[in-house]
Design a protein that fits this description.
38% of the residues lie in helices and 19% in strands. By secondary structure, it is α/β, with parallel strands linked by helices. It has a single domain, classed as TIM Barrel, CATH 3.20.20.70. The protein has an 8-stranded parallel sheet with strand order 1-8-7-6-5-4-3-2. Helix 5 links the parallel strand 6 and strand 7. The chain is globular and about 45 Å long. The two termini are 13 Å apart.
Length: 224
């Protein structure tokens, strides 16, 4: 199912509950929460206490993206704080299968993330134990970057691979998605589309989500 997932990294944290309510009125059913540790990526963002606070303000699906080193030590804490899905970077996991198991055992969906330069082929033998795959379409660490075009070819390769294996796992994309390239992203094979600046930096986040949902639905209909 197609999802437009607003990323709170671009929201106004002084008015976060209000910002979340606006995108929820626009039809969003998921929120994307970027967790950065200043080591795996050159930025610092939020921890479990912030996720716990957000959980108290909304019933939306909280999709937590761990851009951190040693995710095994922290993943369960984010699930306990209220995350419904937690994704970890292939590049940060020594034992990816075990890390996914930790997340799932804690009670959340377990996802794998690939940086732009990491090929889809590295996941061929682990797709069956992942609940979804997130492809970064920018180099992780900061919002507001432009989508890297070759990532759409990675989406097509991953879509072909999941069809070959007859898997239902969603393909998620994060980075540089806006109204003008959204249709291309959907036609490439993405199901969960993370977008931050295009929603929260717009004059009306509610209307922005509604418009992007419509664009995505139309693109999917043409694809079919």
């Amino acid at each position: 199912m197609l999802e437009i997932i607003p990323s709170i990294l671009s929201a106004d944290f002084a008015r976060l509950a209000e910002e979340i309510a606006r995108v929820e009125r626009g039809g969003a059913s998921m929120l994307h929460l970027d967790v950065m540790d200043g080591h795996f990526v050159p930025n610092l963002t939020i921890g479990p206490p912030v996720v716990e606070s957000i959980r108290k303000t909304t019933r939306l699906h909280l999709d937590v993206h761990l851009m951190i080193e040693n995710p095994d030590f922290y993943a369960a804490a984010f699930v306990q704080a209220g995350a419904n899905s937690v994704s970890v970077h292939y590049e940060a996991c020594r034992h990816l299968d075990a890390t996914l198991g930790i997340i799932r055992s804690a009670g959340a969906m377990a996802g794998v993330v690939l940086n732009p330069a990491t090929p889809v082929a590295v996941l061929e033998d682990v797709l069956e134990v992942a609940d979804y795959v997130l492809l970064m379409s920018v180099n992780p660490g900061f919002g507001g970057q432009k989508l890297i075009p070759y990532v759409l070819e990675k989406v097509r390769k991953l879509d072909s691979l999941r069809r070959q294996k007859r898997l239902a796992l969603p393909i998620e994309i994060d980075g540089g998605v806006h109204r003008e390239n959204l249709a291309d992203v959907v036609r490439a094979g993405c199901d969960w589309i993370v977008t931050g600046s295009a929603v929260f930096h717009s004059p009306d986040p509610e209307a922005a989500v509604r418009e992007m949902r419509q664009i995505a639905a139309q693109a999917a209909a043409v694809q079919c």
